[in-house]
Amino acid sequence: MRRKLIVIAGPTAVGKTAVSVKIATHLKTEIVSADSRQFFRELVIGTAKPTASELAAVKHHFINSHSITSRYDAAEYGDDALRVIHELFKNNVSVVLCGGSGLYIRAVTEGFDDIPDVSPQIRGELIREYERKGISWLQEKMKTEDPEYFSQLDQQNPHRLIRALEVKLGTGVSIGLFRQNSTREHDFDIVKIGLELPREELYQRIDYRMDEMIDAGLFDEAKSLYPFRSHNALQTVGYREIFGYLDGLYSREEAIELLKRNSRRYAKRQLTWFKKDPAMKWFHPSEIDNIVAYING
Q1: Helix (H) or strand (E) holding 199
Q2: DSSP state of 94
Q3: How far from 12 is each of 97, 181, 196, 264, 270, CA to CA, in Å?
Q4: Sequence-ordered list of residues with C-beta below 8 angstroms from that of 208, at least 6 positions apart, any chain
Q5: Which CATH number among 2.40.50.100, 3.30.413.10, 3.90.226.10, 1.10.20.140 corresponds to the domain 120-178?
Q6: Is 4-114+182-196+275-296 in CATH node 3.40.50.10190?
Q7: In 3-state terms, the chain is what percent helix, strand and coil (to 5)?
Q8: What DSSP state is assigned to residue 111?
Q9: Distance CA 233, CA 252 (A)
Q10: pLDDT tens across 85-126, in order?
């Protein structure tokens, strides 16, 4: 039988992990995570990692696999994940790839052209300026240096802005040019499953999940990670907002509102990314039998 990589994608809080565990259990296989924050072992509460029972039910790869002190980007992940996937295919007809990080899923399914190494001094200077002047400075700098790519990327994500800027400043070439022409060739089929819910239901789930994280100690976790706030892994929704509160920029109540608002906006961006892929077949997360039928079809 032709081997299949089953991609299960969708916005935050839609239920990707639960569906992936059910699908992997049915297929008697393992799960490779494509969530760019769940790699990091120090990020516990704010990343909605699989529960202990889910991890016990199905073996997961790339959960707690790295430290926030290490730099780990999508291109590196793509190479590492494919090595694991090929190893799993030695004993499995199917493998499940699960996550909401579109760039990381693309790294596995399509790949990137090689991006040259850039002097770490450039990145360090950009991070220092960002810490002093904020994201608006990064946005203006990127708009000046690489306006075409600036119009394409997530302009609220400082990690993406810093990465694009360091490549442009270090090589003189837009990062977009390095990511245009490479497409991976695979000896297995790729089946893409997108999960979606009605908007109001999804937003309610996001708000409920955020309340659960706060009750579980998200503010204390962020406080313990505050010394590492400039690291790439922490330039993300769920931690940035609390760092702003710890800096005295707004109240705890305002931080909670920002956490929920920015999580909803992040979900919208995720959906926008995945909806652009015509190969993605969309299901409600409760449609397990239909998903299995589509995979087997």
Answers
A1: helix 199-216
A2: E
A3: 15, 29, 10, 8, 8
A4: none
A5: 1.10.20.140
A6: no
A7: 55, 10, 35
A8: -
A9: 22
A10: 999 999 999 999 999 998 899 889 988 766 777 778 888 889
143 CB-side CA count, 13 A: 8
Instruction: Specify the length of the chain in residues.
Output: 297
Beta-sheet strand order (sheet of 94-99): 60-61, 31-33, 94-99, 4-9, 189-195, 280-283
The two structure tokens encoding residue 13: 């809080």
What's the pTM value of the predicted model, to 2 decimals?
0.81
Burial class (CB in 10 A: 0-12, 13-18, 19+), 7: buried
Between CA 198 and CA 185 the distance in angstroms is 35
d(CA 188, CA 4): 6
Please write the tens of the pLDDT for every residue from 40-73: 999 999 999 999 999 999 999 999 999 998 878 7
- Only one residue has tokens 């708000």, namely 207
Residue type, 115: I
- In CATH, what class is 200-268? mainly alpha
